[in-house]
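Below: protein 1.
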Amino acid sequence: TDFRKYKWVKIKGENGEKGRDGLDGKDGDVGLNLLKGTKEFNTNYFAPPDAFQRSLVWVDETERYEDFAVKSTIYQFNGLWQNVEVEQGKTYEFGFYAKGSRDTDRIVFSPGWPSVSAKQPLAQFNVGNVPFKLTTAWKFYSFRFTVTQTGWSQCRVEKNEDNNGIKFSLCGLYLKEVKNNQQTPLKWSPSIEDLQGHTLTANLRFEGR
């Protein structure tokens, strides 16, 4: 092959754009999701329901929102959650998209709860249950909390009353550490486990003269 027949572009070196080093040697400012499998809402990553919750089911919807798989429930006290280890003194953000079949304010976010499936020790937080209003339109929500004692969190969002069968739809969950005092919502991104499940390929195209 005659290299002179091709146009060569330097993709690494002094002429290229050098990215900043990661602040913690792992993900820098990207902020990987600490929750796994939330793009497709893979329930294998979520904790099993406690005994009293087994009939309080969630349904897989055919609808997608912002390209996220959607789950819904008409029941209460059945939030979907994962065990995530969190550190004292750090602030985290839990975010998601949600809507209801009718408006309601009988819905809460909580950073943890003593489920039989919760890993020990349970973390302690500067907030408890945080109520908010659910509307009939899809809306993005995010909540921040600071860990006052290192342990395991179980962030979840759920209806706290029967609400006369109001359908609660949910997707795009994430939990991230807030770094560099970032003020704007962190938004969804995949977890490191999500990325490890895919092969990332770079395609380079070279043009002849």
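Below: protein 2.
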Amino acid sequence: KLLEKFVGGVELQNKMFTDNPDKIANDLLKKATQKKRANEIDAAILCLKKAYLEIAKTQVDYSVEVFLRLPLYLQAAKKNTEAWNEFENLLQNGYPNQNISEETKPMIDAVIYDKMRLFLQRNNQFIEAVSYGVYSILLRHYGLFLQKRFSELSDLNKKVLIKEKIEPILKKAARLDLVDKVSDLIINKTNSFPQMPNFNEIQNFIN
């Protein structure tokens, strides 16, 4: 009986480990990477979607980069509309177990907007990408402002550093003539916090 109890306990422990959603999710994420490397992109996408379902069963706050893999894979599969919808869904609805505090959300959104910029650049939509790159910078600045990291914000909100960030984006768009104008926009909007411009305002300014 003692042996039966021991064996039963081991089996239960193994089952608990096997059924652990966090482990299943991580295994699926690894499998998605393997499938993508093998050019099995549809299988990789399916693995990601299954992983997200398992993550939703946990209380683990995965980074936004985990969920940004899906639009990246969808773009690789030439499913651009579906990929863009995933970006929009992350911005509007977030992802499982996301920390949605006022101080952290702008930082997360900044990462999403920057990935949207890269998405557009890969599609040769270089002009459209500029607005997303600029808004990503502003969101990061806004996050620092909300977190009261004023010294760090002050260091970043310098024209020489901002120009370093936006020049490559504007160069791809063949609009280096806008470097000073866009740099001043970012500096002025940052200095106007806590008033945060909406994306359409930035888009209209760039275009």
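The two ends are 77 Å apart (CA to CA).
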